[in-house]
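Hello support,

Our group uses your service weekly, and this is the first time we've seen a run hang past the timeout. The protein is Peptidyl-tRNA hydrolase. I'm not sure whether the cause is the sequence or the server load. Input pasted verbatim:
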Amino acid sequence: MTDSGPWLVVGLGNPGPAYARNRHNVGAMVVDELARRHQVALRSHKARAQAAQVRLGTGPGGVPGPAAVVAVPSCYMNESGGPVSALLRFFSVPPERLVVVHDELDLDAGTVRLKRGGGEGGHNGLRSVSSSLGTKDYHRVRVGIGRPPGRMDAADFVLRDFSPTERKDLPFLLDDAADAVESLVVLGLLDAQQRVHAPR
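Update from on-call engineer: The timeout came from a worker crash unrelated to the input. Re-ran successfully.
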């Protein structure tokens, strides 16, 4: 894929320690993993976000991959659109080079899927981003958290911490999702989908 400017990778979540390990914050956890593996620190940005500039993945011949900004909004989930649109403007990134990483109830826990565009599936963070941008045509990395058990309300489920069993597998899920982000920006959507969606 040709490198025609930077990408913006945003992990959705809620701010503060009370939410840090919630299922709803898995998008932010993936961005933290990307920052960790590239040895950069997310720093406060005037766009109401924590952000860092990196080069994601490895291109042909082992050269560093595309330039990217990885970021986590510093506001609540349902206000994510403001920081995302401000970051796009600040770093001159078009919406088609935006990647939003988010939790997904409609995917089995541990599953990672890539897509571009489509609906928000009741996800308040995606709804806010789409509303602020005036388009749904951006990339999403969907990180499966599964459906709530029994009659538990979905809103309660996503705002609870991962269970002890889920926590054992969480590092692998974050690693897979971070790999999916890097594949997307290096290979493009279709080739990355073939790699990420392939049965194991």
